[in-house]
Each structure stands twice: as structure tokens, then as C-alpha cells.
Specification:
Phosphorylase Kinase, domain 1, Transferase(Phosphotransferase), domain 1, 2 domains, five-stranded antiparallel sheet, two-stranded antiparallel ribbon, 13 helices
């Protein structure tokens, strides 16, 4: 059971979380024109677009054929989170009258690819943007929603404006206490151990592992930090850092049985000290507070991980909190 926000949906009217019964009000397709393709995912193709009614730039996410229920879930979640801090804004939902293909229209963010952007960051930038991401996560968790796909590709940053948006809510789901969820969520390098050992009763803390994996790659300049070449190998890569004794303690606590495929590939690994990842190239990002923060996120036991709210109160973010308290601060780093 989640340590926080466990009963949010239980206290809400059914219409809040029962996305299957959502009635979509379709906007006018002709209001939007595609400018250029900017990305594609498993479930969609993404374009830069223009709203011809007001000449505003927008992002058009054209959904691939997928269960109607999944589309309704994404729309309902985006509507529930509308206006929240650093949550991408859904502006409209349209569909082609011929093909019936739905498209989601989003606010535009002038994003720089993380592989280009992160290497340009100074220490303060990392603190600032992780804090901004935590605002989005605490907000969605407080609304009873797990994102389930936190990774750099889903964090848009307009560095000139120091603006961050958490995008792609296509895998997000409502948290209900005691519910068993699909473990085939998140992207391999950011999957929490609970997904890799097939523990289905997970909660918001899954997002905190993904954030931790992302943070580790930022401070140690190692992308991705846990680089598995399959789901099974992903757990091995994690065990080589967090140790096997600790893994078995976790499995025992939750009465989890490991798949037989792990018998041959999981030998005994000691826990690696975080300090051993520090080198001349990344040391400017590493401080005792950074290591302490990381250590409190990357825990096998999901109940031990910091919540988003606890994370925001961590000493690592003291400089960000101080800057935010200054009048007219733009919170500038580099």
C-alpha cells in the first residue's frame, strides 16, 4: 500500500477515476495543421503543429490504433491534472472523420534533446530541474495518479525559459489500494525492481525509482545509469550496484518468488558504494547531499523510497528553495 495519497481515488466520485465512462467532446480538426514530425512512440506519432485560428504553435499527438479505453484513460488523466505545476497542458482533442484516428493537441514546449542539454548543465541546473520534476510528480500523486513512464524523453525542458513539462501520460494510471497492476510499463532502463520481479501491487513509489535512475545518470554523467539489454539483465545491472543480499531481503519481505531465469544470471554481488561512480568528469555534480538524496531514492524496497514531497524537502534542494524565496527570482543557473 502507498505510504501517501493511498485513498485519494476512494474519496473521489466515481466519475473522477472511472475513465471508461468518459464522454469525449471532439474539437474541430480543421483548426490544426501539421508543420513537421518531431517524434514517434510505440503508441503515437508526434508533430509540431499550428492552430490556424490563432496562429499559436502546438504539438499534435496522433494516436496509433489502440483500445478506446486506453485513449479515454490518457484524456481523463490529462483533464484531471489540468493546470497542475509542470504538467503538459492538453488543449484539445480532435479526430479525422474518415479514419476516426484521434489526435491530442498540446501546448508547445521549445525542447532541447536531453542528450544535448544535460551535458551543458551546471550543478545548480540539475537541482533546479529535478525539483521542477518533483513538483509535477507530487501533484499527480496527490491527484491519485501514477505516471509510470518517467524518463528523460518524457521531460521537456525549454532551457531559455527554465520551463519544464512532464509529458506522455499514455501509460499513467489511477492508484487504487490493493490493486494489482500490469508490470509491463515504463522503459527498461527506468523500470523499478518491483516491475522486474513481477510484483504487481506497486504504487506511486515506482515513479520515484524512475526519477532516481534519471538523477543518477545526470550526476554521474552515465546515460543510462542502469544499462540492461533485457528485462532480466536490467535486474542484474541493478543488483550489481545495490547488491544481491539486499535484493533477497526485499524479495523475502514481500514474499516474492524470482523467476527461474534468474538462477543462472544472478550470482552474488556486494553493494557498490555510490562514491565509486565519481570521476574527474562528473565530480562537479556530486556532493554529500546529492549522494544522500540518490541513496534514498534507489532502494529495492519501494516503501523505503522518498515520496515526491519528502524529496522536495531534502537538503540537496536547499539552494533551489532559497532562490525561490527571493523576490523576482528567475532561479537562474547557467
Amino acid at each position: 500500500m502507498a505510504r501517501v495519497y493511498a485513498d485519494v481515488n476512494a474519496k473521489m466520485p466515481r466519475s473522477y477515476w472511472d475513465y471508461d465512462s468518459v464522454a469525449i467532446s471532439w474539437g474541430v480538426l480543421e483548426n490544426y495543421e501539421i508543420v513537421r514530425k518531431i517524434g514517434r512512440g510505440k503508441y503515437s506519432e508526434v508533430f509540431e503543429g499550428i492552430n490556424v485560428a490563432n496562429y499559436q504553435k502546438c504539438v499534435i499527438k496522433v494516436l496509433k490504433p489502440v483500445k478506446k479505453k486506453k485513449i479515454k484513460r490518457e484524456i481523463k488523466i490529462l483533464q484531471n491534472l489540468s493546470g497542475g505545476p509542470n504538467i503538459i497542458a492538453l488543449l484539445d482533442v480532435v479526430r479525422d472523420s474518415q479514419s476516426k484516428t484521434p489526435s491530442l493537441i498540446f501546448e508547445n514546449v521549445d525542447n532541447t534533446d536531453f542528450r544535448t542539454l544535460y551535458p551543458r548543465f551546471v550543478d545548480y541546473d540539475v537541482r533546479y530541474y529535478i525539483f521542477e520534476l518533483l513538483k509535477a510528480l507530487d501533484f499527480c500523486h496527490s491527484k491519485g495518479i501514477m505516471h509510470r513512464d518517467v524518463k528523460p524523453h518524457n521531460v521537456m525542458i525549454d532551457h531559455a525559459k527554465r520551463k519544464l513539462r512532464l509529458i506522455d501520460w499514455g501509460l499513467a494510471e489511477f492508484y487504487h489500494q490493493g490493486t494489482e497492476y500490469n508490470v509491463r510499463v515504463a522503459s527498461r532502463y527506468f523500470k523499478g525492481p518491483e516491475l522486474l520481479v513481477d510484483f504487481q501491487e506497486y504504487d506511486y513509489s515506482l515513479d520515484m525509482w524512475s526519477l532516481g535512475a534519471m538523477f543518477a545518470s545526470m550526476i554521474f554523467r552515465k546515460e543510462p545509469f542502469f544499462h540492461g539489454n533485457s528485462n532480466a539483465d536490467q535486474l542484474v545491472k541493478i543488483a550489481k550496484v545495490l547488491g544481491t543480499d539486499e535484493l533477497f531481503e526485499y524479495l523475502d519481505k514481500y514474499d516474492i518468488e524470482l523467476d527461474a531465469q534468474y538462477d543462472d544470471i544472478l550470482s552474488r554481488f556486494p553493494k557498490k558504494p555510490w562514491q565509486s561512480f565519481v570521476n574527474a568528469e562528473n565530480q562537479r555534480f556530486v556532493s554529500p547531499e546529492a549522494i544522500d538524496f540518490l541513496d534514498k531514492l534507489l532502494r529495492y524496497d519501494h516503501q523505503e523510497r522518498l515520496t515526491a514531497q519528502e524529496a522536495m524537502a531534502h537538503p540537496y534542494f536547499a539552494p533551489v528553495r532559497t532562490a525561490a524565496a527571493q523576490p523576482n527570482s528567475q532561479n537562474h543557473g547557467s
